[in-house]
Amino acid sequence: MAEAHQAVAFQFTVTPDGIDLQLSREVLKHIYLSGVTSWKKRAIRFKNGVLTGVYPASPSSWLIVVIAIMSTMYARIDPSMGMIDRIKTSLPVSEFMTVQTQTVLSAILFATGLWLSFIFLLRYILKALLSYHGWIFESHGKMSFSTKVWLVLVKLLSGRRPLLYSFQASLPHLPVPSIDDTINRYLESVRPLLDDEQYKQMESVANDFKKDPAPKLQKHLKLKSWWATNYVSDWWEEYIYLRGRDPIMVNSNFYTMDLLYVIPTHRQASRAANVVHAMLQYRRKLERGELTPLRALGIVPMCSFQYERMFNTTRIPGIETDFVQHLKDRKHLVVYHRGRFFKVWLYYGGRHLLPSELELQFQRILDDKSEPQPGEIKLPSLTAGNRVPWARARLKYFNEGVNRASLEAIETAAFFLTLDDETHGYDPENIRSLDLYAKSLLHGKCYDRWFDKSFTLIVYKNGKIGVNTEHSWADSPIIGHMWEYVLATDCFHLGYTAEGHCKGDINKSLAPPTRLQWDIPKACQVIIEGSYMIAKGIADDVDFHGCLFNEFGKSLIKKCRTSPDAFIQLALQLAHYRDKGEFCLTYESSMTRMFREGRTETVRSCTCESTAFVRTMEDESTTTEQRLALFKKAADKHQNMYRLAMTGAGIDRHLFCLYIVSKVMDIDSPFLKQSQRHLVLIAQSHRHPEVSQICGSRRRLWVADDGYGVSYIIVGEDLITFHISSKFSSPETDSFRFGQNIRQAMLDIRALFNPKEKKM
Predict the structure, then answer these.
(1) Phi, psi of 327 (to 5 degrees)
(2) Whether the Cβ atoms of residue 709 and residue 237 lie closer than 8 Å to each other
(3) What is the pLDDT of residue 359?
(4) What is the pLDDT of residues 437-462, one digit of tens each?
(5) pLDDT computed for residue 24 by the predictor
(6) Judging by beta carbons within 10 Å of its beta carbon (0-12, 13-18, 19+), is residue 14 exposed, middle or buried?
(7) Would you put residue 710 in left (φ > 0), alpha (ψ -120 to 50) or beta?
(8) What SS3 class is residue 373?
(9) C-alpha distance across the termini of the chain, in Å
C-alpha cells in the first residue's frame, strides 16, 4: 500500500468544513525534478542543434565576424561595399532607434549574412571534397599526392569535435549510374552463370532495353535524385521491407550475439539491469547527438541518418503496407516473462533508474507467480506470422479498451525486453550450443519476442544476452555500434559485485512493475494460434550451424597481401562449388553510407575471375603458381567491385529503381522482367543479417530453397565466425557440411601462400 500512496500526488477529503487537500511532498518533489530534467534535456538539444546547424563553423565564429566588421567601421573602412548603408536605410526610424543604433544593427545583420554565407560555402566545398572517391581505389599503403592533399583539405574543413549529425548537410547525394555502365556490369555479372546461347539472348534483350525504354526511365530517376535526399533509400524501405506481406521473423529480422567467452554475471536480473542502463545512457547520447560520427580513415564521415530511429520505434502492420512509428522521450519499456507482459518505468525523480533499481524491478518480475491471461502467452506470435492477419486483428481486437492501452504501451515503449526462461550461450564442449543460441536469438519460441519493435533485448537465465532487430529502420552496423557500447559499458564501467549483483544501493520504495491487462476473445486467439503455427513452421525449417574458424584470421591474411573480405569470399565460392558442383548467384552486402541517407548495395561475388580460380583449385594438373596468380586476379576483381558498390556505382540498386519507375509508368520491359528474379533474390538477401548470401536457382523468402546464407564476422586478429543457414526441407543443403567445406577451403587457399602446408 505504501507504493500506491506514493504514486498519488495529492488526496482530498470532503468535510463539513470544506475540502481538506493533502499534498504528497515526495511525489511533488519527483514532479519538480522531472520538469527540471525535461527542460535541461531541451536546452542541451537546442544547444547541440545549433552546433550541428552551423557546422563546420562554430557559434563563437559569428562573434568574431561581428567584431571584425564593427572594427572596420570604426576605422572608416566599408567592407560591405555599401550594403550596410542599404540595410540601414531599410530600417524603421523611431525614437527608440537612433542613427547610431541603426548603424550598429545594420553592421550586425550584414556580419550575420556574411557568416551564414561563409558556412554554406564551407559546406559546399566539403561536399565537393567528399564526392571524391579516388582514395578508395588506391592500393593499400600507396597514396597519391592528390589524395594526400585531399585528406589535408577534408581534415581542415571538418572542424573540431563534430557531433553525430554535424556532417549530414555536407554529405554528397548518391549518384545515379549511367545506363551503359549498369548494363555492362550486369552482363558481366551473369556471364559465368549462363552458357553462350543464354548469354547472347540476355545481351540482345539488354541492348533493346538500352535503346528503349531505358532513357525514359533514367530521366525520371535522375529527376528524383535531384529532388530527393537519396534516390534509393525511401523506395528500398517501402518496397523491400514495409510492403512485404510475409512473416518478418527469420525472413527479415536479424540477431546480434553476446561476447562468446565472457559472462560477467550469471544473475539474470543483474545482467538485464546493467545492459538496460547502458542502453539508456547510449540513448541519451544519441538523442543529444553527442555520439562521435563514424569516419573512414578517421576523416571521411559516414551518414548517421539511420541512428535516429533506434529507440522508441515500432513497425506498425497494415493491410497493404506497414509503416514505421518513431516517437520521442519514451520513459518506459515492456518486459515479457513466462507469457506475461509488464510495464517498467525507466525514470525516478527526473533521472534514469540506477542499475541496482532496475535489478530490483526485474527480480520482482522473475519472482511474480501470477498466471498469464487467456491468449496472452502466444500474443507476440502475431508479429511473427503473416502481416495481413496481424493488421486485421489489430484493427478489430486491439482498437479499444484494455487491449488498446496494453498494445499502446508495447508500441510506445523505448524497446522490448524478454527475460527468457531458457539457458543459452557458447559452450566449447557442446558442438550444438552455438547453433541453438543463434536459433533462439533469431526466432525464439516464435511467441516470446515482439518482432515489430526496433529491437528486442533478450536476457537468458544464465546471464547471456542478445538482440533481435527489425530490419526496415536500419542495417546491422547501426545496431552493432550500440551493442559494442553496451557491452563495453556493462563489463568495464558499470560492473558487478562479488556476488554478481549490480553495484549501488537498493531503493525498495520504487513502485513495482505493472502487469498489462488483456481481454482477448476466442476468435482472436484462433488468429494468434494460426500465426504461431506459420511462424513455427518457418523456425523449424531453419538449419543453422555456427562455425568458429580459429586456425588463422585477419592478421595472417593481411600478411599474404590480400583483403580479408576477398579471401573469405573466394573461400565461399570454392566451398559452394565443392558442396554442389556448380556456381550460382552470390550476393555480398556493401554499405553506401558515404552518401546522405545511404544504406546498402550489392556486390555480385560470383565472377568470371572467381570461377576460373575455383576450377583451377579443383584441377590437380595445375601448379601452385597458376592457382595463386588466378587467386590474386580474382581477389583484385572482388575488391574493385566492392569499391564500386561503396561509391555508388553498383548494379542492383539502380536496376531496382528503374524497375520501380517502369511499374509506376506502366512500361513493360523484357530485360527488367528477366532481371527481376535476380532483383528479388538480392533484395531478400539484404533482409537477412548475412554479409554474404549464396542463392540457388529457385526463389525463396530469405534464401533460395536450395541455397545457403552465410554471415561471417572477423573477430580480432585470429578468429573468424561463420553463421550458416539453410533449409532442412532442402535435400541439397546441409549447413554443417557446408561449414566443413568452408573450413577446408580456407585452409586450402592459405596453403597457396605456404606450399608446405597440407590439407587437414
Answers:
(1) -120, 175
(2) no
(3) 97
(4) 999 999 999 999 999 999 999 999 99
(5) 62
(6) exposed
(7) beta
(8) coil
(9) 69
Grid coordinates 595463386 are at which residue?
Answer: 628
Cite the active site residues.
471
C-alpha cell of residue 637: 576483381
Under-50 pLDDT residues of the chain:
1-8, 679-703, 757-760
At 673 the pLDDT is 79
Please give the grid coordinates belonging to residue 362.
526485474
Question: In angstroms, rounded to a whole number, what is the distance separating the alpha carbons of residues 450 and 415?
Answer: 9
The whole-angstrom separation of Cα 593 and Cα 133 is 13
- With b for 16 or more beta-carbon neighbours within 10 A and e for fewer, the 528-566 pattern comes to bebbbebbbebbeebbbbbbebeebbbebbeebebbbbb
Distance CA(594)–CA(154), nearest Å, equals: 14
516, 508 Cβ separation under 8 angstroms: no
How far apart are alpha carbons 699 and 69 in whole angstroms? 67
Measured CA to CA, the distance from residue 407 to residue 393 in angstroms comes to 12
Query: How far, CA to CA in Å, does 330 sit from each of 161, 283, 333, 350, 410?
Result: 28, 11, 8, 13, 11
421 and 227 Cβ atoms separated by less than 8 Å: no
* Contact criterion met (CB below 8 Å) for 190 and 583: no
- Tell me the pTM: 0.89
Residue type, 192: P
User: Quick one: which of 31, 179, 181 has its CA closest to 661?
Assistant: 179
d(CA 390, CA 388): 5
| SS3 label, residue 21 | strand
**What does the block give as the cell for 312?**
522508441
CA-angle at 536, arms to 531 and 539, nearest 5°: 130
CB-CB neighbours of 515 under 10 Å? 17
Do residues 688 and 254 make contact, with C-beta atoms less than 8 angstroms apart? yes
152-591-651-677 Cα dihedral, nearest 10 degrees: 180
Name residues whose C-beta falls within 8 Å of residue 124's C-beta, 6 or more positions apart in sequence: none
**In whole angstroms, what is the distance from residue 345 CA to residue 335 CA?**
11
Q: Are 416 and 570 in contact (CB under 8 A)?
A: no
State the Cα–Cα distance between residues 552 and 547, nearest whole angstrom. Answer: 13
Strand partners, 544: 725
CA 659 to chain centre: 25
CA gap 459, 272 in Å, rounded = 6
317 three-state secondary structure: coil
Cell of 388: 495481413
Three-state SS sequence of 406-430: HHHHHHCCCCEEEECCCCCCCCCCC
**CA 588, CA 602: separation in Å to the nearest integer?**
6
Length of the chain: 760
- 607 CB-near residues (< 8 Å, 6+ apart): 188, 189, 192, 634, 637, 638, 641
Q: What is the pLDDT of residue 349?
A: 81
Whole-number Cα distances in Å, 651 to 568, 655, 698: 22, 6, 21
Answer whether 387's CB lies under 8 Å from 245's CB: yes
Cα separation, 127 vs 341, in Å, equals: 48
Question: 575: which 3 cell numbers?
Answer: 566451398
pLDDT at 30: 63
Sign of CA dihedral 212, 213, 219, 225: negative
Residue 128 CA to residue 131 CA, distance in Å, equals 5
Q: Write down the H helix ranges in 214-312.
A: 214-227, 233-235, 268-288
CA 642/CA 644 separation, integer angstroms: 5
Residue 348 C-alpha cell reads as 525516478
**Assigned C-alpha cell, 276:** 538496460
| CA separation for the pair 270, 496 (Å, rounded) | 8
Selection from 588, 591, 660, 644 nearest residue 181 by Cα: 644
Taking the C-alpha atoms of residue 758 and residue 751, their distance in angstroms, rounded to an integer, is: 7
